[in-house]
Structures are given as structure tokens and as C-alpha cells.
Design a protein that fits this description.
By secondary structure, the protein is an alpha/beta fold. The chain contains ten helices and ten strands. It has a single domain, classed as Alpha/Beta hydrolase fold, catalytic domain (Rossmann fold, 3-Layer(aba) Sandwich). The chain has an eight-stranded mixed beta sheet with strand order 1-2-4-3-5-6-9-10, with helices on both faces. Strands 7-8 form a two-stranded antiparallel ribbon. α4 crosses α5 and α5 packs across α8. It is globular, with a radius of gyration of 18 Å.
Length: about 300
């Protein structure tokens, strides 16, 4: 008999995030996105879907290292408020309700999984798909978009882990960023070792609200999660499949929080400025890395809504 799958009706830590958003964007057990499961290479991927069958387009929301699909539910509602769109948010492997099992997951598996999810959604009804990547989900979305077949790419930041200054800001201690790739390369034999994400990433700067940061760090589905050394090693040694100078696959919108204390816009600009495709940068006023502040939150919805239209 197939084991009973977990649900966000029972795993309810995500409800604690709702107080940080305006009332119109909050979700509860009665108005949350619909939960689905999608089988991919032997793994059950949890999906949140804010269905809109009459909408002309879809957006797939991709979380970063401290999040998961249900954590992004207020942003799904924000996008749906600004434009007729169906929104899908997966729990990437090892996060949220999507279990990695007993195997060490690589960053490339995240890319492959999202690539196949986009293809499945396109085959489902033929509607154009946009990708929206938050935090390190931005480069994940870029990697998928480089393969083509997307209507557009939205990111909050574009963090290139090949750059030592980027790695030093992403990690909790600068020495981790400086020595990370070479050190982890020598520890391949320990690839399966699980490491608390809060040991590695600077979760104290996830937002500009200390209470929200504490919630993220303690959430076992997100910032309180553990990832294997293999995931860290393959992410920190990753190189884009297409350099930005040759990226022409689709238009790009970067909605970067202007008050991001973790990864300021200066870290993303070198990569973004090199992108050859039509592109636009919108700075979200007074918003931190996880944007919950006004007017940045409203600016985010409007910028993405205009981009989709």
C-alpha cells in the first residue's frame, strides 16, 4: 500500500508567515492553493496550484534555499490579483513536502526537474509558461530558461556562484564563500552528509524583520532544513548552460528588492547587465531579500503583471 502523503492541511508552519503580509494576500486552510503531486523520476513532487483555467498564461514560482512552494502562496495571490494568470509553485526536491529520500540530491536535479515540469505544463494545455525565481531560484530559473520554450523569465536576483564576492555574501561566514568550492570538492566522499542550511546560509538577512527571519530559520520545511554536501558542492561549482552575453531565449524582468541586506543588487547587476535578451530592472522600494514591505510588494505585483501582459 502506498504510504500516506503529507499535506499542508496537517503541516501548518506556513500559516505563521501570513501575518507578515497584507490581509488581501494572506492564505489560510480554506483559501490556500490546491495541492497536487507530480511523479518525476521516481520522486513525488509536491505542487501548489492557484488554478485559473481561463487565464491566458501560467507562472511557475521557484523558491530559494530558505523557502518552499507553500511559503510563496502570498506571492501567487499577488500575481493573480494583478493579472489573469494561473500560478504553480513546486516544493523542490528536499524542501517542503517533497522528500529526497535517502539519496544526496544535486543542483542539476533541480534544474532537470523544473525543466520537465515546464514541459509537462505546456503539454497539459498549451498555455505559455513564465518562470519566476526568488533568491537562488533566480539562477535556477535562468538555467531552465536558457533551454528555450519559455514566454519570459522573472527573477528577484541573479547570483552567479562563480564569483567569490557573491559566494561570500550568500554564505553565513565569508570564509565559507571563499573556500567553499575547493573545500567541498575534496569532500566528495561525504556527499551524503546532511548539513543544516542555517549553518551555511545567512538566514539572519532573509528579510529585514528579525521575527520573520527567526521563523524562517526554525521552519524545518525551509530555512531550518538540511541539505547534503552534494547539493552545496554542485551549486557552488555550477556554471550557466548559456553565458548571459548569448542569452536570447526570452525577455527578462529582474524585480530586485532595493533594501536587500543579504544579496544587494550590486551582486546581481554584473550578470544581469550582460544579458543579451530584452530586459528590465525594477527596484522594490524599502523591500528586503524576502519582500514583504510596502511599497515594494505592490511594485512587485504591478511590474510582473505588466510583464505578463
Amino acid at each position: 500500500m502506498e504510504p500516506r502523503r503529507r499535506s499542508y492541511q496537517g503541516v501548518t508552519r506556513w500559516l505563521d508567515y501570513q501575518a507578515f503580509y497584507p490581509p488581501g494576500l494572506r492564505c489560510d486552510l480554506d483559501n490556500a492553493p490546491t495541492e497536487e503531486w507530480w511523479r518525476w523520476r521516481g520522486t513525488d513532487i509536491h505542487l501548489d496550484r492557484l488554478a485559473a483555467p481561463e487565464a491566458p498564461t501560467k507562472v511557475v514560482l521557484l523558491h530559494g534555499a530558505g523557502g518552499y512552494g507553500r511559503m510563496l502562496a502570498p506571492y501567487a495571490r499577488l500575481l493573480a490579483r494583478e493579472s489573469p494568470v494561473e500560478v504553480l509553485a513546486p516544493d523542490l526536491i528536499g524542501y517542503g513536502l517533497t522528500s529526497a529520500g535517502n539519496r544526496p540530491v544535486s543542483y542539476q536535479e533541480w534544474i532537470d526537474c523544473v525543466t520537465d515540469l515546464v514541459a509537462a505544463e505546456q503539454a497539459r494545455d498549451g498555455r505559455p509558461v513564465f518562470l519566476f525565481g526568488a533568491s537562488i531560484g533566480g539562477m535556477l530559473a535562468y538555467s531552465v530558461a536558457a533551454g528555450g520554450n519559455l514566454a519570459g523569465l522573472v527573477v528577484t536576483c541573479l547570483l552567479d556562484p562563480r564569483e567569490v564576492t557573491v559566494r561570500m555574501r550568500m554564505t553565513r561566514l565569508p570564509v565559507m564563500g571563499r573556500a567553499g568550492p575547493s573545500m567541498l570538492g575534496r569532500l566528495r566522499g561525504l556527499d551524503a552528509l546532511p548539513i543544516p542550511m542555517r549553518w551555511v546560509a545567512n538566514m539572519a538577512a532573509m528579510s529585514n524583520d528579525p521575527d520573520l527571519n527567526a521563523l524562517v530559520r526554525a521552519d524545518p520545511s525551509g530555512g531550518g532544513n538540511r541539505v547534503t554536501l552534494r547539493f552545496l558542492r554542485t551549486f557552488l561549482s555550477w556554471a550557466p548552460p548559456v553565458e548571459p552575453d548569448r542569452f536570447t531565449a526570452c525577455p527578462v524582468l529582474m524585480t530586485h528588492p532595493a533594501a536587500d541586506r543579504w544579496t544587494p543588487v550590486e551582486l546581481s547587476r554584473p550578470f544581469f547587465d550582460r544579458i543579451a535578451a530584452p530586459k528590465q530592472l525594477v527596484l522594490l522600494e524599502q523591500a528586503g531579500h524576502l519582500p514583504v514591505e510596502e511599497p515594494g510588494l505592490t511594485q512587485l505585483g504591478r511590474a510582473v503583471g505588466d510583464f505578463l501582459r
